Amino acid sequence: MPISYFLVLSALLFSIGVYGVLARRHAVLVLLSIELMLNAVNINLVAFSALLEKAGLDGQVFALFVIAVAAAEVGVGLAIVILIYRNSQDTDVGELSLMKW
Amino acid sequence: MSEWPFLDIVVFLPLAGTLLIGLIPRARVGALRIGALAVTVVTFLLSLGILMNFDTGTADFQLGTSVEWIPEWGISYITGVDGVSLWMVMLTTFLMPLSVLASWSVERRAKPYFIFLLTLETGLLGVFVSLDLFLFYVFWEASLVPMYLLIGIWGYRNRVYAAMKFFLFTLVGSLLMLVAILFLYFSFPGSPTFNYQELLGTPLSLGTQRLLFLGFFASFAVKVPLVPLHTWLPDAHTEAPTAGSVMLAAVLLKLGAYGLIRFAIPLFPDAARELVPLVMTLAIIGIVYGAAVAIVQRDMKRLIAYSSIAHLGFIVLGVFVGSIQGMSGGILQMLNHGLSTGALFMLFGALYERRHTRRIADYGGVARSAPVLAGVFLFVALSSLGLPGLNGFVGEFLVLLGTFFRYRWWVVPAAFGIILAAIYLLWAYKRVFHGPITNDANLRIPDLRPREMVMLAPILVLIAFIGVYPKPFLDRIEPSAQKVVDQLRDSSALPEAAVGDADAP
Amino acid sequence: MPLDIPAVRLTGIAPEIALCATALLLLVIDAVLGERRNRWYLPALASIGLGLSIYFATEAWGTTRLELSGMVAVDGFASFVKITLAVFGLLTVWLGRDFLVRERAEEGEFYGLVLFAVAGMMLMAGAADLIVVFLALETFSLALYVLVGFRRRSLLSQESSMKYFLLGSFSTAFFLLGIAFVYGAVGSTNLYGGEDGPGIVSSFMATGASDVGLLILAMGLLIVGLGFKVAAVPFHMWTPDAYQGAPSPVTGFMAAGSKIAGFAALLRLLDVTLYPLREDWRPLVIGVAVLTMVVGSVLAVVQEDVKRLLAYSSIAHAGFVFTGLIAANDRGVSGSLFYLATYGITVLGAFAVVAVLSGRDDEKVTLRDYRGLFYDRPLLAGALTLFLLSLAGVPVTSGFVAKLVVFGAAIQEGYWWLAVVGMVTSAIAAFFYLKVLVVMYMQEKETEDAERVRSGPLSTGVIGLAALATIVLGLYWGPLIDVAERATLFFAGG
To answer: For chain B, what are the domain ranges?
Structure first.
């Protein structure tokens, strides 16, 4: 299978993720979109690792790292969301506007 | 050469004096005043040591020290005076105790006031004696902050605006100069150095010289100030407290002219020569414009401020005209303007303390209740407008003479400026001190107090002395002035030829 | 089959190990000893950990090699950054102590997170592979996200934590995509390449210029990710919000620490690995630098909150450091290091003053609250004046010298116009530093405080140290610049 298939898939996923971050107002959905972007990158890494001659196994190892870090990130992110929810009963990012430049 | 490093002690003594002031509790206003006065007087007495040890016959730098500071970058602590800076140093140390006397009425927040005033003195003196571009820049910028605070805290109603404008105008100019300094530093062929005397010989193409000259010129022209860049001056002068105005007019403005003489011309002589017409035009515009605008001012301090613009135009004209008479006249005029305008600000400051208004229209007939004040004011005004026999005449005459030798017709607008000066000063004098009394408060104005007489007497003596016998002053100025003139006229010509040439029309 | 254990040398990451171990120990001790009135032993332990990491970083000074299969570089550059970071960490811990006592907040977690963050930042400085850069980036970012939201009762703090977190993760995704593209373009993520495989540039040179487009794109994405951490425009959106909401000691730490960590990675990436391609990345970085300087300086002018003001100032300062980075010569690298170290100390000092003055709940941080400060608290106001003048780049302060080095480096490389842009924006920036001075010196206090703010002994010490460093480094910076110059980047394999 040509590598371009994977690259296009990854690009699509990444773009959907970017769209989600920019368009969604709910913190959890934004978090999900970011996860989507990270996984798009993982597809990229694995595809490069498996299909490119010059690339070794690094890409797949790297993908594992990304998965682990993403899990940690979600942990912290959800903790912040919960904290805010406790304080304000609301997790809509759009509502968070105590500060403006 | 003396064993004692008079120069360095004089520069840093005021800064050390701030520690003394810092120890005095802030409620003891009287002790603070006496302390500040003592520090400045001692500084002045020590600076007499510089004058005594100054060797008249040479154009070289004297009495300085040279210590490595940051050898990694070729930065050294190098000081020294020549005929140009000597009088500027003396002027600063001389006027500072008088400024302290003029600040006697500062009751509010006196402690920081005197601390900033003394810091300012060190900054100003440092600029005049630095012979390392880095050191020079440090002092140059460092003198900004205390002046900014003096205007901003103890000034009049619009003080914050004026202080801000003063700071930002100067800062933009200085930063451009800093780029030029760095450029010069990297252009120097030998091992990297900021040493002024070594950098003098840096080979630069005319195009580069022009850019770098403009970088320096931007900074100095703001400080002088030359006309399109002068708008900060009336505001700063008007809003500053009396001592601030005195230091601003008498010394701070001289930094610009001094910088042109010391740095802009010798470092980039070819570019300077090329741009002489431009600078002279700006100077002439300054003379006429400053005088013309001064005539229509209703605010006495603004009037004196605009008169400063005109006077500084004279100084720049003399410096750039490229003859020894013009140069020495310009340098002498720097001293004269410091004395006369400083005295004018002190006198008006005294008047302001009595009536709390700056509007000329609020005064009138003051001479009746305060005849001594009026007499002294007239004397100083006459000196400022160049009456023969007083100091202003000597300087202005030399400048005009030098201009006449080199550029005959430029004398006409310059001389016109002197006539205008007579108009605005005498007219203002008449409106303030004579005429009908429109306000009864003017009848009860007390005359000069002993403290104010003590403060003004030395200036009056000097004004008369320079007017009658300027030789000791010119003797010290001339060798150094000659050196700069040679650079401005033709750096490739032999010095002897240039000397002979300078005196001929 | 005998097991062949490779000789693992840990000089490169010993400081980080020390920090992580201390942090874990600290959390355990905090849990075991439980609630006590005075938990002085926690900051003391944190200080010991940071001291140890300084010791290990000093030990590594002088060695130049790659370790852990080419994943970590040990060089003067890394040591310099690590020592600087440890100093920032120390100041933050001390400052945090007073703050936490005042706010009655959990102490152990705070110090633990600070230590983890410092460890992550240190790893950034030594990272020799993009994987490690990514891990380090995430380590310190996660710790900072939590620290920003540390004022639990304040919704403001949590809001900024949230924003910082979302925008931070967003930019990390771009950074990661950049790494993937680098990997796709050259088949390696190693900045150097060595015995265990090729590096980015060596592979690139071997395969020829066929994939240069992809590599340039990847480079752009990497700059996005790191530019976010150093608060470069247009990736600066989070900065004012995060700075405003975070507890003041954390804000100072963020400004000082994440800036030097981000720039350390950028310097190694651009000035070493991608040095051969400098003509390709320079236009991009110059654009970012100019934008950063201009936007940071201009937007700061309208701020009314001191922390937001300092946030925009920190943006502008990122732009100034970029000029040293763009020069990409020795003076540029050492100048950037010097700049980041002195800026960090100055800004920590400034935030220390802000932290002391902000009072209970960290709330008095608008310019109104600073009116007439000089007549009320002359020493604090004097110290803040000094820090602000240093940030503005007025002589006799370290900030002036720092500007001089980076602009000097740019001029040396022929980018004198970039220095002119820097000078002009500095002048604009001076306006808002002066604005604070106007408030402190030239306006009158409105109301008397119910209770006078107190500066704790540790805060006083931090402010004093920072002020001393700002003055001393402004008058006699030779030794530090000398060390910065010897803190060379490992350059082999490029």
So the answer is: 1-274, 275-505
